[in-house]
Amino acid sequence: MLALSALSPGPALGYAAPLVSRVFMMSAVPAFIVAIPARYASTRLPGKPLAALAGEPLVLHVARRALAAGADAVVVATDDARIAQALAGSGVEVAMTRADHASGSDRLAEVATRLRWADAAIVVNLQGDEPLAPPSGIRAVAQALADDAAPMATLATPLTTSEELFDPNVVKLVRRGDGRALYFSRAPLPWPRDAFARSREVLPPATPFLRHIGIYAYRAGFLRQFAQLAPTPLERAESLEQLRALEHGHAIAVRLAPEPFPAGVDTPQDLARVERMLAQGAR
């Protein structure tokens, strides 16, 4: 049976020393933890974290991306022993959680409390279905949080087509002049009134259209606090958890991703696509 050990808080950072040697880390990037929520149940792809990808579990590919980013620790948070067993011997910490969490953030908040991460520790929430997440992007969201007094940070990338803008599965955002988020929405955002009065087929070049990338960094203390906040009307309406932070008055720093984030895995077709990309040498 796999032994699941808790990380012991260290004297300076509030969490354990690295499980593996740092693969690459620019000196300017702060120390950070990557936490990966991994839930076995999935409507469109049952058992998704354990889906075979190039002969290995999907979640292991995600964890390796986090290790390549230079995380001081990588922790997979799951409620299923099959996922823990699949990661045995991988060098990745596994934290077993309750099964009743409504979201990945709630699951990670339990881990942050149980492993006693220091309030100031930077925790990157990397979704467990992102096997091609670029290490540079993982570092970038940690850096975005370190560079801002906001308790939470995320990434965005320019949105270039009207198809994306009008697709409700593509989350859009607008931000303030200082880079903090104003709003996230599934609706077209912003709305260039005069340009769209003429045509909605082409996006006007002067308008800053941004697509949200679903990777977050939090201070561990805020992650614990966030899980205690009541869900909000806009969060429910849009089905976007980050709106809870905004509606409760908490800032979210937004920075542009340094390179593209390939789409994650939600369906068997996505899994086949990523398999082909890996076979073609995707990094």
Description:
The strands form 2 sheets. Strands 1, 4, 5, 6, 7, 8, 9, 10 and 11 form a 9-stranded mixed β-sheet that branches. The protein has a two-stranded antiparallel sheet with strand order 2-3. The chain starts with 32 loop residues before the first strand and ends with a helix. The chain has 10 helices and 11 strands. Helix 3 packs across helix 7. It is globular, with a radius of gyration of 19 Å. The protein is of the alpha/beta class and 283 residues long.
Secondary structure elements and their pairing?
Layout: E1 33-38, E2 52-53, E3 56-57, H1 58-68, E4 73-78, H2 81-86, E5 93-96, H3 104-114, E6 122-125, H4 135-146, E7 152-158, H5 162-165, E8 172-175, E9 181-185, H6 193-198, E10 210-219, H7 220-228, H8 233-238, H9 242-247, E11 252-256, H10 268-279
Parallel strand pairs: 1-4, 1-6, 4-5, 7-11
Antiparallel strand pairs: 2-3, 6-10, 7-10, 8-9, 8-10
Which properties best describe this structure?
single chain; 283 residues; alpha/beta; Spore Coat Polysaccharide Biosynthesis Protein SpsA, Chain A; 10 helices
Summarize the structure.
Helices cover 29% and strands 19% of the residues.
Helical segment count: 10
**Measured on Cα atoms, how large is the radius of gyration?**
19 Å
Sheet/helix structural class = alpha/beta
Number of domains: 1
Low-confidence stretches: 1-27
Q: What is the 3D form?
A: globular
The name of the CATH superfamily reads Spore Coat Polysaccharide Biosynthesis Protein SpsA, Chain A
- Overall mean pLDDT stands at 88
